[in-house]
Write a structure and sequence with these properties.
186 residues; single chain; transmembrane helix; Vesicle_transpt_Got1/SFT2; membrane
């Protein structure tokens, strides 16, 4: 967009482009400020959806546990995951995907996909997408509450592993930490 403004104003002065000012595959003509606002709004909305659904879940769990005084049978029925797994999975997964996709406002969708399918994180991306699809299948098609809970747990773990792929040596450190924590040798 700034190139068009530069051309129309007749200013031939070269300037450095930041990652926010690069063209995003010609699909979007948002200014850098608008991209930052869109990124922030998308990220906050996604995290809010995930946090609110999980917070509501924990709140129900604690309240029911206190009221029922450790009667766990009816407690499980009152949780939103068990009561309405479709609603939980849809809200959680939509928030999850919204938060992950928020960076496409900063770097563009083409570059985002290129980074997702980079050889360093292709397996993490495939596992993450597979877990998202698995969670939706378990909730929408199979209607199994237990499978839905396991699929959400796998989705959270896959999201963490995918996110760690962007931090240098983070996956190696987490792997070594888990090996040390789970080591059974004395």
């Amino acid at each position: 967009m700034w190139k068009l403004n530069q051309f129309l104003s007749g200013d031939d002065e070269e300037r450095e482009e930041s990652f926010l000012e690069e063209e995003s595959d010609g699909l979007c003509s948002l200014s850098p400020t608008q991209r930052m606002y869109a990124f922030a709004a998308s990220l906050v909305a996604g995290l809010a959806l995930m946090f609110l659904v999980c917070r509501f879940e924990v709140y129900l769990f604690v309240c029911c546990w206190i009221v029922l005084k450790h009667k766990m049978c009816s407690l499980c029925d009152s949780l939103i995951v068990f009561a309405k797994p479709i609603k939980f999975v849809l809200l959680f997964t939509f928030g999850n995907v919204l938060a992950v996709g928020s960076t496409s406002f900063l770097i563009g969708p083409g570059r985002q996909l290129g980074m997702m399918f980079d050889p360093a994180r292709i397996y993490a991306t495939a596992i993450y997408i597979g877990c998202v699809v698995l969670a939706l299948i378990c909730a929408l098609l199979i209607h199994s509450k237990i499978l839905t809970v396991f699929a959400i747990i796998f989705e959270i773990c896959a999201l963490i592993w995918y996110s760690l792929s962007y931090i240098p040596l983070a996956r190696r450190m987490v792997s070594n930490l888990m090996i040390r924590l789970c080591d059974t040798e004395l």
